[in-house]
Design goal:
8-stranded parallel sheet, single chain, TIM Barrel, disordered N terminus, two-stranded parallel sheet, 348 residues
């Protein structure tokens, strides 16, 4: 495979660990799980939604959610009886097998889990062996390569507050993330580099970030579609888009707390920087993550409609189909309260 030949540098798990990169093992999962909330009347039009999404996928517009293991979707897109063992619901069976039922409706799924650690080859083997081969994956690159200084948060342990030596290290990223993933490249839609908000202390000028980003992208293999998600509004400039365009990398149109709305980002002509496009409907602009969790959990239903956001997603679909561009759209529960219902409203 050409993609495998491009990634010539090899590294075993021990060498990756020696560089301080956290590794996600096959028995770990950092996906958020919700309490079991079975719906008494399974009236959700699952088949109709699947038909609509397959029709869009035939025009290179793939729509899915940010993750898949929410038990709150039982009775919605998941059939509780499929996960019974010895007469009762099995959480383990659900966690291991629900990706198959997810793929009966959605053509693409988001893999947020890889943001927190670099999965091992065994992790990838188990994940892809359970998932239908036609399902595409939009995977986040591990934060070990996108965080310049580790936040003061307990989960970073002794790294809290320290500069990250692996930040935008293309060779280490290839060894730790791309090499173990290489047997499954045909199943990957896109790899997303999510950058948190950079302070003025970290990057006093955006030019410095763009220089670092450009040098990183230059060293990546061309066998995978990449995209970058930034959360500094001031970085949305011609130079940023030119940097992405010169390397065939897509800008992620992201609806997030301190970013312009999707509707505003769509109006930036320069923002379409690659033959593919990525959209992530995460939060309503101006609303913090914790506030959204409080408002919307346990994500069983739409709690607050966001008409402008829905229309922006429809606009992205129309733009994608008009230009025949590969587009991957992911909707989060914290956008309106229930990602499945949001998607149904957008494509219905």
């Amino acid at each position: 495979m050409a993609g495998q030949r491009e990634m010539s540098r090899k590294a075993d798990t021990r060498s990756v660990l020696s560089r301080g990169i956290r590794v996600l093992t096959d028995d770990e999962c950092v996906e958020p799980f919700q309490p079991s909330l079975f719906r008494s009347e399974p009236t959700f039009p699952k088949e109709e939604l699947g038909t609509a999404l397959r029709a869009l996928a035939n025009h290179n517009t793939l729509i899915g959610t940010s993750s898949w293991r929410y038990e709150g979707r039982l009775g919605q897109v998941y059939t509780p009886e499929r996960y019974y063992s010895r007469g009762r619901f099995s959480k383990t069976k659900f966690q291991e097998e629900c990706i198959q039922e997810y793929a009966e409706v959605f053509p693409v799924v988001g893999g947020d889990f890889s943001f927190y650690a670099a999965p091992t080859p065994e992790f990838w083997r188990k994940l892809f062996s359970r998932a239908p081969s036609e399902l595409k994956w939009s995977l986040k690159a591990p934060e070990d390569f996108t965080v310049k200084r580790f936040p003061q948060h307990p989960r970073y342990g002794p790294r809290r507050g320290l500069l990250n030596p692996a930040f935008l290290d293309a060779e280490l990223f290839t060894a730790a993330f791309l090499e173990p993933l290489s047997p499954y490249l045909e199943r990957i839609a896109v790899v997303i580099f999510e950058f948190g908000t950079f302070s003025r202390e970290i990057y006093p000028e955006r030019r410095a970030f763009l220089d670092d980003l450009g040098a990183f992208l230059q060293r990546l293999p061309r066998s995978i579609q990449f995209s970058t998600e930034i959360r500094n509004e001031e970085f949305l400039c011609a130079e940023y888009f030119d940097t992405l365009r010169s390397h065939g990398v897509a800008h992620v149109f992201n609806s997030w707390t301190r970013m312009p709305s999707l509707a505003d980002q769509v109006q930036i002509v320069d923002a379409f920087t690659a033959p593919h496009t990525v959209v992530r409907a995460l939060l309503r602009p101006g609303r913090a993550y914790d506030q959204s969790v409080t408002m919307f959990a346990p994500y069983r239903e739409i709690r607050e409609e966001y008409p402008e956001g829905r229309e922006a997603l429809r606009s992205m679909i129309r733009e994608s189909m008009g230009r025949k561009r590969n587009t991957y759209i992911h909707v989060n529960n914290r956008f309106e309260g229930n990602a499945i219902e949001t998607i149904r409203a957008v494509v219905g």
